[in-house]
Amino acid sequence: AKPGLQMSNMVSSEGFMKGIPYDRPYIDVVTSLLQWSLDSGMIPLICPVGRDTRGCSVILDQTEVTAAVSRALQPHKVMFLNHSGGLRSPGRKAGTLHAFNRNTSAVLDTVCLPADLPRLSTASCLSEAERRKVTTITKILNQLPAESSAVITSADTLLSELFSHRGSGTLFKSGDPIHRYSSLVGIDVQRLLALINKSFDKTLKEDYFDSLQGRLRAIYLSEGYNAAAIITMEPVNGGTPYLDKFVVSSSKQGQGMSHILWECIRHDQGKLFWRSKAANKINPWLQNSSLHTDKAFYSHRPIHTHILHFNIFRLFHRIKQRSDHRLTFMKM
């Protein structure tokens, strides 16, 4: 069988026998062989072996081969399998890169490129091999469609990565950087309004943005206006941050954008509370993100409450509630 990979420049065979090429080759993929295999109903298994310009077979770097095949096929997802799973740190909690210095060893589940790259590149917990893989993934995603992603995960969890919404490895996505604003200056209010209205499927009150004057603490907004969060300051316990709006456009849902936005908020705010209807479908996620869940009553109506550490009874008297609402306090 012919090798499915060819090299377009000269490489010393002596260097390859030692495993150290004198110059990193550019790998040219013969896509016709891959297409023939796919058209025949077979999944091609590609060995990292190519042929140089002299016709000699040479061993290639498997990561570079993966990058070359990805450039040629433009896939929606590229998976790097190993025995250990996603990127780990002995000093962090599960989540995104903003939680990199927590006290529990767990998998880093989401990396947003290019925003997270500087911090990830300097993380002391990564091995040199992991740094090289991160660099390769960054290059791959730069040459793929915006909706493409890459995953580092264990071979044992391959099925969950392929057939579930939540995998167990580290997901790399090219995403909009998240910017923080302390006022509406520099924000296209009409684009932000359109995002909120479409996400909630209803129209905000005309005076909503005017009502933020004197209460606005921060607005988190992705560069492409695909995700946003509005934080206000409420007069509880001398001032407590309140998550007034949290929206992600439908085109970005399921791509890690909500986790990235959430970790930006958690990293900056330290504590906050929010409310949602008890029938809200995302309440399980809200519960998982809060410190404690409890049930209280206000005006003889049930309110599901997630408590952090401030006086909940003062809070009820300060915030108007509608029936069957859920108050949630952020877990740090």
Description:
This protein has four domains: 73 residues, no CATH class; 100 residues, no CATH class; 92 residues, 3-Layer(aba) Sandwich (Aminopeptidase), CATH 3.40.630.30; 62 residues, no CATH class. Strands 5, 6, 7, 8, 9 and 10 form a six-stranded mixed β-sheet that branches. Strands 11-12-13-14 form a four-stranded antiparallel β-sheet. It has a four-stranded mixed β-sheet with strand order 15-18-17-16. About 19% of the residues have low confidence. 28% of the residues lie in helices and 27% in strands. The protein contains eleven helices and 18 strands. A hairpin with a 5-residue loop joins β13 and β14. The chain is of the alpha+beta class. α3 packs parallel to α5. It is elongated and about 75 Å long.
Q: Summary?
A:
With 332 residues, the protein is of the alpha+beta class.
- Structure class: alpha+beta
Question: What does the average pLDDT come to?
Answer: 74
Report the strand count.
Answer: 18
Q: If you compute it from the alpha carbons, what radius of gyration comes out, rounded to the nearest whole angstrom? A: 25 Å
Describe the SSE topology.
Layout: E1 5-7, H1 13-17, E2 27-29, H2 31-39, E3 49-51, E4 57-59, H3 62-73, E5 77-82, E6 88-89, E7 95-96, E8 106-113, H4 117-121, H5 128-142, E9 149-154, H6 158-163, E10 170-174, E11 178-181, H7 189-200, H8 208-211, E12 216-222, E13 227-234, E14 240-248, H9 257-269, E15 273-277, H10 283-288, E16 293-298, E17 301-306, H11 312-318, E18 325-329
Parallel strand pairs: 5-9, 7-8, 8-10, 17-18
Antiparallel strand pairs: 1-2, 3-4, 6-8, 9-10, 11-12, 12-13, 13-14, 15-18, 16-17
Helix pairs in contact: 3-5
